[in-house]
## 1
Amino acid sequence: MTDQDLHPLNQNLLRLLTEKIYEKRKTAALEVERMMKDYVLNGNTAMIQKLIKVLAQDLTLSDNSNYRKGGLIGLAAASIALGKQIRSYIPQIIQPVLSCFNDSDSRIRYFACEALYNVVKVARDAAMPYFSEVFDVLSKLCADSDTNTKNGAELLDRLVKDVVIESKSFNLETFVPLLRERIYARNPFVRQFLVSWIAVLDSVPEIDILHFLPEILDGLFVILSDPRLEIRKACESVLGEFLHGIVNRPGTVDYPAMVNILITHSQSPDELVQFTAVLWIKQFIKLAGPKMLPFTSGLLVAILPCLSLESESRKNIRENARQVNQELVKIIPAESEAPQEATDDILTLDLESIVQVLIDNMTHSSIPTRLAALRWVYSLLDQIPRRTFKSIEKLFPAVLKALEDDSDEVIMAALEDFAEIRSVSDQFKLLHNSAQEDHKIQGSYFRRFIRDLLTLFKKDRQILDDRGHFMIRQLCLLLSAEEIYSVVADILVDETDPVFASAMVEALSAILLTASELFELRASLRKFDRKLQQGHVFTKLYRCWAHNSVATVSLCLLAQQYQHASDLLGVIADLDVTVEHLAEIDKLVQLIESPIFTHLRMQLLDPETNAYLVRTLYGLLMLLPQSEAFENLRRRLDCVPLLQRVSQGQSVPPSDMVAAEKAFFADLLQYFINTQKRQQASIRHDRKSHS
């Protein structure tokens, strides 16, 4: 380079600027600074531009590494000398410096940091138009392999943050794409760098980064899962501040844009990520309310499995998930709320997806999750029955399957769902007053449920033995016991499997004679006044109870039809009485001593009026072998005053039944005989087949 090319530099100054020794370059830089100050003082813009051109283009952009070092230190010195005048020369100064950050020589990258630091320190807000380029450089330098360069970048980073905080021209819309582009970086230094920048920007009141949160939220949750504790803590703090800002300004937040991100991360295997996501979801539901309804199925996918978390470390996740589940149920508007606003909210529910999620979770390995899914079905039937019924064909078999569960709580929830189906069908009946509509809902689903329940008991007798009593009692508690027993009897009367039919009637009879939930049904049976009432529950039950001879006798005792009970015992004596029959009679004798039959025992005080009762009890006594039950019943009969009269030759008084009543009970007796004959014939046939 000639002196003319170097002007206003000279060969001697050039030699010093490009020396390998830093101290000599620093001496030359002081001379450059002095020269630039003179030009500024004299207002000599031409010389200012020429000096910058030589330092920037001829030195900093040179292929010679020593020239580049000299150019960088020279531009730093020139920037310091320019002071406020630097605004006019920012492009010519900053671009050459930025180009040096891609240099393979770590020393040049370090000197570029030093030079840019001085440029930004002087330029301040004037450097903001180049923020994107500076940020790009910093995001790379924070992970630089050279320690000195990395340290220099940290100093530069702190300065740039200070400038941004005080800047009036910082463009957040330009910055967010840069952030979004880098936020999925795996390098821990880059992650830490990005989190620190987000934290700084969020702390500036004039900068509303919350508005752009949907664009970076997913990346923040990814960073939150970093294995390094310091990064996790920093990211957790940033997310906490964002959530605090959302709570304080709920009306300015775009909830729909973020909720799916939270749903995804609430299923994370990382405890901190999962807890944070669930916590955010809880706040979103509280703050946004019905706006969250379109995302109900996704939220259930996220929340229901969290209810099953058992480890102590995930206790907070489980508790927050439980609260989310409760809050989500609350925001579902009822169909009964006529205003258009409520109707619009209901329409945002993707009920088909919700139903599928619930069905999937009914078979979850954990009881709390299965339980929550079933309770959701109840809530949907309660709040939006019309829309829910459109999916009843999918829900029905899934809820029925829940009756095979090992948990009493789950079974109870399933029974409550079926009771609600029954209740909703009544509502539809009142609303439509249509026989066709009523048949479609009431006949199709309630009766179908009872039929399927009986099929379940038939398929798996263990369920009947272990849980049958519990299920039937709970159904009677939830619905009308008379209705339950009437429908069961109506279906079971045509049962072709005699063994199952007898076992089922035995179970139903035991519940009828012992459970407090069936008090009203027992009272109704006692009021059967021997008039011809073909539709009375006694008649319905009798035709079904005929599958089990001893149960039929107990039904007659409960309904106070003692003459017919006595007639039944005469028939039973001619049947093939087995050990099982004797065991059932033994149980009946024990029940006669229970509170249920207190009225029967009191009637023994009037043997003349209740002669057939005494005769029936003696009949039971004669059927029994001499066992403990035999002795108990004999002691009871020893207390009956009638014994004295019988011993004096008095006979049982004749029946006071009218002809029509006799015909009615004769028909029942014949039905009983025919049923028992068919049963015994079927049992003998089965025995032959097995032989």
## 2
Amino acid sequence: MSQKIDLIIHNANIYTFDSGQPRAEALAIADGRIIAAGSVSDIRDLDGANAARDTLDLKGATLIPGLNDSHTHFAWWSLIMQELKLAGINKLNKVLDLVAESAEVTPVGAWLQGQGWDKNLWGDEFPNRMMLDRVAPRHPVALMSKDAHLLWVNSLALQLAGLTRDTPEVEGGEITRDAQGEPTGILKENAMSLVHRVIPEPTIEQVEAAIEMALPEAHRTGLTAVHSIEDAIGFAAFQNLRAQGKLSLRTAVLLGNWAIPHLQALGLRQGFGDEMLWLAQIKFFLDGTLGSQTAAMFEPFDNSPDHRHDNCGMFRMDPEDFERQARQAIRSGFGIAVHVIGDHAARLGLDVIEKMQREEDSGRLRNRLEHVQIVTPQDLLRFAASRIIASCQPTHATTDRDVAERYWGYERAARSYQYRALLYSGAPVAFGSDVPVESIDPRKGIFAAVSRRREGENRPAFFAQECLTVGEAIRGFTYGAAYAAGDERRRGRIAPGMLADLTALAQDIFVTPEDEIPQTPVVVTLVGGSPVYLSL
């Protein structure tokens, strides 16, 4: 071998996830790619002829393929780091106290925004605008729920949006109203747009700066790549960072269905870009969520907090319109990624993708359903048969376990978050976080997939038959995510020719107690053979 070696990694406990050579002790890297993996003596012999420029002693750390999150809203997450953080707060009064504190230091008339509140932590009832009016009467307030499918606003926000009792309903959404027909301050699904349109948008420069500040936090958790669902401003910000050489996280961008006519006009296709930033699938939002009781279900939710007994959730898109737009995307050279939470939404997503694969020869494209939280037994088997990717977020299972039993009942909850069943069926499975809905940290996702418990939780696993092995969980965050982006020939394994995207952990999580997984330190994160995080 005459190729100059840039980096030798040694003194490592390497899990390659490559069937030809599952374990190794050392690696040789050149031009951002792995050129050899093997024993220390193998790599030393190779190095003797090629004189590596640098070496990295991992001091016995465990090295795995670079972790990859298949479902993020990265720009949004970056921006909300500067907003009110309401996730995990289990008392309504505490949320209101934080809003009041923010109002005291914010100029009168400026918007107060926050994200992460979860009514299921307080009880079943929805909050209302009057609660916010009491603590922030001179500021418009807009607080996004944890699942990002509910917006809680105050009266001033409604006034600025021109939203009154006479405002008609929005297709695929709901303006909740009291007994007198007045808006309560809770907007569901597409109805959130009535307020969002009057909130000043951040500039490209602001988004760019926020992403740049967030990148080190992502690398600290071991991430080398993400799939990110972005709007036009977010995509532009990523492009600016790439052009400046500041984008250190490989990013597959999923644009929403709003982008289809623009992509058609430009003649762009999936995969356009380079190894750091490229276009992936087109994202569709088909239904709502479990926590908001807006997921499209075949049977009504149990214990609905609005005291309805016929609430089967809602579709955010007309099914015929969804099929029409899906066909447009696929004819333009893009696979589709479809948000489905409820079993009815999953059925529709599978139906449309399978129809497109028959009629538009889209089998060449990677199509995926996002979340896949509950499906009927017959529909679960369709993922493998049609090679439709199940893009799932393991922490949703542990966060939602109580809510699933409350609103779906035991029998339906037993067929929710079926990661083991999907893998056994032969379905392609990719794992992610859905940040900022959940933590971006993939160690937490691996733990959730393996244990089916929350951190520190002292109770049995949530339907333990669905627990995965550590290797299966890691594969979902490595090869599975790479496959979902059509990138499995470059990433997801440690083998010659693959990109040198690597994550090193202080402990061997294959053998340590599972409760230690989420707190296992990341000691090195490498992208293209270059350290983007180092803590040895």
## 3
Amino acid sequence: MQSALAVLLCLSTILFVRAAQRVDLPTIPLSPNDASQILDRSLASLSIEFSYLPSFGGNASDPNTLTQELMQRLVERTGVGPDIRPGGITVDSTQFSPNASALELDESSSGGIWKTTYGPAYYESLAVFPNSSKIVIDVNLGNNTVQFARDEIQAAVKYVGWDRIRALELGNEPDHFAGGSRPSTWASSDYTAQFLGWTSVLSRNLSLPKDIFQSGSFAEDPTSQAPMTTVSTIEEGIDTTGVIKIFSQHTYQYSTCDPARDAIATLPNLINHQNITAYLDLWKPQIAAARSAGKEFVVGEYSSVSCSGKQNVTDTFGQALWLADTVLYGASLNISRMYLHQGATLVLQSNQQANSPGFSWYDLWYPVETDRYGAPRASPSFVAYLLITEAVGSSGESQISLIPAPSPQLAVYAIWDQSVLSRIAVLNLGIRNVTASDEEKEATTVSLDLSEYVREGSNVTVKRMTAPGLDSKDSSAVTWAGQSYADGIASGDEVVETLHGGLLTVQGSEGVLVRL
């Protein structure tokens, strides 16, 4: 006997198929001839504001259990934990002291963190993350004192260990140093010269591995006006000493750092496949330059809206759709890993920003109880990292490609596993808000015929990332395969659909992963 839930699912699917717009896809190649590089299983990684890592990780005697559970959900899908990068703007005013407590903050009257002193206990916060998670060690470049960087690297090697260290990074967004910690004339060539000088000294004094540094972490979009890019530093000879392992730049598509940009940081602008792909295409020359040098390219810090996100935009289910499309498209461009930033509003970011102090509106989870967010919980966007990690898989032999779709707000990604077409991710970025009428829901629903890829006798399954609407802010109502993850643990019965006859239906503001 079918359960009531199964009957309702079947009936709803029938109704949507009748009203859905039929979309025909071009033929998906059965082999990955023009697909991406092999996907890193840590594609969906995390950057955490340096001065807030203890909030997210806890310590040895009181580990953050929500963080532990959420990280385990990712390990279950790929076999490895995400990379963790304690970094961000506060790293450039840090100083390690062997006699300090875990974290000692010197703050201004307005809540600005102008100095962070930390001791050995700081590293206890990293123990909450999976042992398989690699750590990017970001050290102080902003204070222009190489001894600070030396002490911080030495401490990281001692308390984290080389087996967990992915790379060493000097500073955060040095293209923003001009007129602050550096002269107003500070330019790309100055950064390149300092990078070469410091890495030479640090490598010699600390007997560092040959290629261990992550270069760049630039903030500005790589347009012709950008003060520093991967391309400019390579042209200046930054890679001539062989110490670079990875090139990194940051991406924030929108911003609340000033009123003009705040005005256009809206859900309709954000949840737009054409906007997402056009934006990331700006990084293609940087990726190509890094790969030509034989190095990886990563987005070492990113989110949708800089200066800590935007209320009613990045704290909604819409952020999940933006994340899924952004990371999967980035992977198709050969970005090795993308580090989603977690943290809090910092008053020193901008004197015009819209946000007040508190955990960022774009955080993937809220790690501790606060007046702003209430009890600790995953945000509505966490499910995106479940879709992404299942799309990547655990084999370490997957590749991805964006498949052209005739509908402008439909993103279709093919994933080949061990050179076999194995999974298809479909994201329908058509806007379906919580208050949408039945007619509005029908107008954004699409159906795709995937029968060509359904092998005879195979069991083709579908997992669905969905919510009551794009603007939903209730984590318990946002689901992946029928389950919500507000507490870090799956709640509700798992719903894995079977694709009968090859016809797939996807509502607006919904994503699915098809396993062939």
## 4
Amino acid sequence: MSGVSLHLSKREIKILLMLLDLEESVTTKELADTFQVSVRSIKYDLDNVREWFKEQKVELHTRRNKGIWLDIPDSERLTLKNEIIEVERFETYPDQELRINQLIFRLLLAPAHLTSQQLSEEIQVSRNTIISDLDRVEELVLSYGLVLNRQSRQGFSIVGDESKIRLLMEYITQKEITEYDIYQIMSYFVQSGQQKKMQEVHVGVHTIFQSIYQVALKEMTNLIDPSLFDQFNYAEILSITLRVAIAASRMQLHHTVGGYKLLTNQKVLQQKQELPFLLMKKVFDHYELPLLADEYFYVYSDVFVANNRQDIVGLTEELIKDVSEEVNFPFYRDQQLFTNLFAHLSLRLTKKHLYINEYNPFVDDIKAKYPQLFSAIQLASQSDIVGSALLINDSFIAYIALHFLVAYEKNQHEINVVRIVYVCSTGLGVTSLIEQKILEEVANVEIAGFASVLNAVDVIEEKNPDLVLSIFPIEIMNRPFIKVNPLPTEADIHSIQEEVNKILTQTKSGKVPRLIPRHQVKEKQGIEAESRDILVRIYVIYEELLKAFAEKLTCEYREAFLLHVMLMVHRITFDSQYENEGNIVKETLLAQQELVGKIEQIFAKNDLMVNQAEITALLNYIREE
């Protein structure tokens, strides 16, 4: 490594990294704004930066009115980036966070206590710096339920429950590993044969962990077959390797995670080619360590055992609701967010291999740019997820935050729309006429739903509209309300438009945060697939209803019954069931209780909620006794 690189300042290193990340040019003014210093300071920095590139035989291009840029292939950018990261990590004066991580690793992997003098010599900073760093170490280990033990004349050590110690080691390792390290490790895994060469990964430097980790990585490469890449993603491969190295390094110091019972079902695991077992056996054999059952459990599963009792639909709703309240932004209106987050949590909380400290490259950016959202998700997760204490770390939160950010960003580009709930009498024919009139004559609105006087409160609660229109003078709390005529008049339309404009003005001034899910544009293939699904669903439901009705169905009504079921499924699918009000015959429902139960089950099994008005209509096909 070049001598010049050692004299680069932190800011110069950041400028170097920025130039390597940018595809296009950047001006000195833009750099000055980014680093909040004067253009003159940036020009001084660039002298050193240019010198550094010259050492690497790379030209830094400059042109007036265009700025500065690099014209090199991506592979070379990556190599140079690594050069700088290595310089930054090990040659410049390490910052406090890095020192604290190094101190913890040294304390956890030392055979005995370490004095502040020994630590100061190893990390090459003054004893005073070490003393103040140790206060921070104490804080961090405390948050993991561990204790920094200070013994007079003997020095310092970290003590506590072994599983918590390992959790802390995982947390630090995941923070220390850079994207470059991961790229190195993964490309090492996928290279074949002779040309393999492994760069040293700088984690746990100057401790036994570093060499053990290299052995684990090497053994993992020999084991992993490309066919296994489908079973594990890179974060899991990384986690298994890390855990084996952590277990081996702690066992070298006679710290086990549980008892001393040997792992008994080794033959079965060998036959099944269980990757965590194969790697553990290789590394433990290398260091002549016994294969203990609890150690395998630590490597293979997790301290947090997947909680199958957690209701994930409920959890997803709770999380979205709590985060919405905390940051005062209505995420709960975005159906797509619910779908995506539900899928994410289902996978996350029911996986066989659940690695809680998985590597997540987004953590620092999200924490820096969206601190309020980050802490809101942290709070909500802690209160909503059962048995969550160990699961909820920065990586977990950042992955959830990404889903919320998608919803947030999407909203930034939406035209604002006012959502209306319309309270009227009943009859679907009339509602579609009213909807058409309002949508044609009032700008920037959408009808979120219709309600009758009887269910108005529930519908308003569920749909959470911005404006309620009603032909009845209902008492409505905390949202705008307009009484209109049964068929809206010109004056009604005028009042609605004025109210809508008022709501939109408040929205723009930031008083009412908005989030309108974007209407999905149905691709041709989408419509085709959707209609096919509905047809199949209709057929399944029709067959099941035939069985349920059995002898009760009048034979000559069979074809009419099929048509009725087809239209009924269509109505339910598109949220336009018959209104309950005025369409329920309680006596019929009571007389046919058993059949009603079967009908409800058939629809529920096919993910449709059928109301009592629809069931009453269906019961008209029963043979008269």
